[in-house]
Structures are given as structure tokens and as C-alpha cells.
């Protein structure tokens, strides 16, 4: 006789029900006055110090502090022990690993097969957040491997119902793509990232028994669409980017997700500016601000004001641009908060300076643009190698336009040194700088840059 499933019996559901997570107050104390995003950046820096790779962000910190993540995986454990060498995992508020993973989970050995185990119920349920299996799947096989192995779509049929593990895998795909883009740019990622996106929307079609899981899947799929759209945007595929951002916006509207809607409009504004549609950029940025108001995040509103400023600059409206820049600085000065969306981990003082530099450049104020681009490159967290290359390439072009040819060439060489970054957008900016410098190739520093850039002389 078949054994009844957990869902068929009220008594069985009562036996396997997982207790509500208990907040990790000890870990919250370790964060101190830092916002979740700032603390996540500190975790990433500590990981680099010991040669580890983690894609920590504000959401991960929030899930640890809420108690949803009862014990970190081994990579995070090494990083946390490096950050707090005088504390054990228990001192940090974590449960013993054997109580979280469970004897049965270890015996099954999912890592041996490289596949994520199916969702389980019972006391030994494991947290899939940043699991070692997901991490290996992504770092060794790229986004395509994550789609097949981590989203449960390695077989021709998607799961009948999506569960918590699938929702976590979609969220993990977003984080991994963002981390790789931060370090390497979009060119090598875009085509491969399309497969996890398709898998995520197949999971949405499969449906979920729990509304909370469905909400996570909608948010995760929408964020994944934005991430893939950004890869298209940064690699010069504007039509593809517009389609992906539209898909994210539709997902946000269906789910009633204001945060996702604000993010989709934010990126649409950025794309419109780059695609030569500045009035659309202004309107999309204003729409993003309307959607974002209930979120109570000054930093998000600051970024959206910068997106609007970029549109006004593209229209040649200096007054409108300056008013938006003033709002952006005023909102930024209010500081970060727990309400800041997790995708905004890139938005700090460096990004503020860099986006303002782009505004002044669009208005033809090259010297002012160079000053802001220089500060942006100097302030940038090394984790964001792509943005360091972007702001430095823009600095090279701005300096070339004001006659600072040798400093422009030095900036161009610094971009070339960041050879791990592959972004068509950055390459195009550097090509423009090289063209401006070509008439001055008699200067030795300029000549060295042009030779390395492979510009005919």
C-alpha cells in the first residue's frame, strides 16, 4: 500500500512542520551600525582577503539575521571566522551544522552527483541559500549549468510544482550573474544567462502551492529578467535589453511588486538614455520614483533622481539636470537603510560621482565631468571591477577633450590593465578616447597607450 504523502494528512503535516525561524540577535550585533548592504560589502572584502568567493548582499544578511539561515555554508563560515577570529559559530548565533544538515542529508551526499536534491520535509531540511552545490554548479559551469542543475530543469520536464528550493535557486542565479558582471562585464555572460531566465519562467508556469513561494518566484524571475536585460544593455544589444526590462515590468505588475516595478523602470530609464531617447529616460525615471515611494529608501530615490538627471542632460536641459542632481545628493546624504533593495549594493559614493560625471559629459562640460569621473574611479570598491573600468574609460575621454593627453593616456592604460572586464560599452568609450588621442601620438605616454589599444598609428 502506498505511503500517504505529507500533504494528504493533517496529522503528518503537524509532525513535519518546521518551527518558525528565531532571529539571530548575536549576528545582528556583529553588524553594528553598518547597513545590511555595507556589511555585505565588508563580507565580500574579507572573502577576497582569504581567496574565497561569496556573493554576499543585503538580502543574505537579512536572512541570516532573521534566522532563516541557521548555519552558513563552509565558504561563509571561513569568511566569518576570518572576520571574527575570536568567535565560534555558536558565538555568532548559528546552530550546529549537524543539526541543520542532518545525518540523512550527509548520507545522501548530493554534492557527489553535482545535483541539487529535491525539496524535502522534516527536521533535517537544509537551507539552500548559497549552498555549496549551487556555488560549485555556477562557478564551474556558468549560468547554463546553474539552470540545469540548480533550477531543477536538467530533465526535459520542469517540476510539477515549484518549491522553496527552486525559489532559492532563482535568487541564487541572480546573485551569481550580478557578481560575475561586477567583476567581468557582460560580453561573456549574456548568451549563457538566457537559459536560467527561461528556466525561471518555466517555474512560474509550473506554479506553487504556497503564495509566499509564488511571490519569491515572481520577484526572482523579474530580477533575473532585469539582470539578463542589463547584460544585453552593457553588451550593446539594446533591443534585447528593452524586451527583458519589459518582461520584468510585466512580471512586477502581475505580482503587484512595487520594488520590482521601480527596478524595472530604473533600468529602462538608463537604457533609454544610452539609446538616445532622453525624454523617455526622464519619464521612466519619474515612473520609477512613483513606484518606489512606498519603499521608504532614500538611497533608491537618490539613484532614480540621477537617472532623471541623465535624461535631462541628454535633452540639453541644464536646469532640469541640476535640480535632479541636487535631489540626488540630498537624498544620498540621508544614508543607507534596511529598506534599501538588495540590488543596490553597487550604489555608493563612487557610483554617485560616476553618474554625475556622465551628466556633465552629456552637457559638454568636459572638465567638470573629468573631475567627477576621477573621484568615481578613486572611490570605487575593487569588487566592482567593471565600474572601475567604466569610470576610468570615461575619465580618459573627458581628459582627452580638455587637452590633458598624457593623463588621458594613463587612464586608458589603467582600463587596459583590467583585462578581465569584457564590456562592449566600455570598449566603445575607450575607442572614442583613443580616437581623440591619435593626433597626439607623438607623446610617448600616448603612443604607449595607442600601441596597447591596437589603434593604427
From TrEMBL:
Region: Disordered, residue numbers: 1-32, 106-127
Superkingdom, taxonomy of origin: Bacteria
InterPro entries in the cross-refs: TPR-like_helical_dom_sf (IPR011990)
Gene3D superfamilies: Tetratricopeptide repeat domain
Compositionally biased intervals (Low complexity): 1-19
SUPFAM superfamilies from the UniProt entry: TPR-like
Name of the featured protein: Uncharacterized protein
Annotated source species: Streptomyces pathocidini
Biological classification of the source: Bacteria, Bacillati, Actinomycetota, Actinomycetes, Kitasatosporales
Amino acid at each position: 500500500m502506498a505511503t500517504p504523502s505529507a500533504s494528504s494528512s493533517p496529522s503528518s503535516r503537524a509532525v513535519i512542520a518546521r518551527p518558525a525561524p528565531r532571529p539571530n540577535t548575536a549576528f545582528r550585533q556583529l553588524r553594528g551600525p553598518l547597513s545590511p548592504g555595507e556589511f555585505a560589502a565588508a563580507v565580500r572584502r574579507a572573502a577576497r582577503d582569504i581567496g574565497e568567493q561569496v556573493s554576499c548582499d543585503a538580502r543574505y544578511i537579512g536572512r541570516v539575521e532573521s534566522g532563516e539561515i541557521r548555519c552558513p555554508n563552509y565558504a561563509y563560515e571561513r569568511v566569518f571566522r576570518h572576520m571574527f577570529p575570536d568567535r565560534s559559530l555558536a558565538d555568532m548565533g548559528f546552530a550546529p551544522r549537524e543539526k541543520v544538515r542532518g545525518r540523512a542529508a550527509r548520507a545522501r551526499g548530493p554534492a557527489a552527483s553535482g545535483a541539487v536534491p529535491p525539496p524535502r520535509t522534516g527536521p533535517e531540511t537544509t537551507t539552500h541559500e548559497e549552498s555549496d552545490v549551487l556555488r560549485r554548479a555556477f562557478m564551474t559551469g556558468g549560468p547554463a549549468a546553474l539552470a540545469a542543475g540548480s533550477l531543477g530543469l536538467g530533465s526535459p520536464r520542469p517540476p510539477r510544482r515549484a518549491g522553496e528550493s527552486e525559489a532559492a535557486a532563482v535568487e541564487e542565479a541572480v546573485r551569481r550573474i550580478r557578481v560575475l558582471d561586477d567583476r567581468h562585464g557582460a560580453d561573456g555572460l549574456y548568451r549563457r544567462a538566457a537559459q536560467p531566465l527561461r528556466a525561471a519562467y518555466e517555474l512560474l508556469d509550473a506554479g506553487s502551492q504556497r503564495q509566499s513561494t509564488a511571490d519569491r518566484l515572481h520577484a526572482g524571475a523579474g530580477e533575473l529578467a532585469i539582470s539578463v536585460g542589463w547584460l544585453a544593455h552593457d553588451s550593446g544589444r539594446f533591443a534585447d535589453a528593452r524586451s527583458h526590462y519589459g518582461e520584468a515590468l510585466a512580471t512586477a505588475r502581475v505580482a503587484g511588486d512595487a520594488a520590482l516595478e521601480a527596478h524595472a523602470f530604473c533600468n529602462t530609464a538608463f537604457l533609454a538614455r544610452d539609446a538616445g531617447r532622453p525624454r523617455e529616460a526622464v519619464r521612466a525615471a519619474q515612473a520609477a520614483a512613483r513606484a518606489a515611494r512606498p519603499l521608504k529608501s532614500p538611497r533608491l530615490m537618490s539613484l532614480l533622481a540621477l537617472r532623471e538627471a541623465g535624461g535631462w542632460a541628454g535633452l540639453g536641459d541644464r536646469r532640469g539636470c541640476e535640480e535632479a542632481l541636487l535631489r540626488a545628493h540630498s537624498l544620498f546624504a540621508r544614508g543607507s537603510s534596511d529598506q534599501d533593495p538588495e540590488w543596490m549594493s553597487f550604489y555608493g559614493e563612487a557610483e554617485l560621482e560616476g553618474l554625475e560625471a556622465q551628466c556633465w559629459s552629456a552637457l559638454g562640460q568636459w572638465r567638470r565631468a573629468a573631475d567627477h569621473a576621477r573621484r568615481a574611479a578613486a572611490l570605487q570598491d575593487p569588487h566592482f571591477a567593471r565600474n572601475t573600468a567604466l569610470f576610468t574609460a570615461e575619465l580618459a575621454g573627458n581628459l582627452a577633450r580638455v587637452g590633458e593627453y598624457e593623463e588621458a593616456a594613463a587612464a586608458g592604460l589603467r582600463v587596459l590593465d583590467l583585462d578581465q572586464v569584457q564590456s562592449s560599452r566600455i570598449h566603445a568609450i575607450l575607442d572614442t578616447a583613443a580616437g581623440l588621442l591619435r593626433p597626439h601620438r607623438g607623446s610617448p605616454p600616448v603612443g604607449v597607450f595607442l600601441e596597447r589599444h591596437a589603434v593604427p598609428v
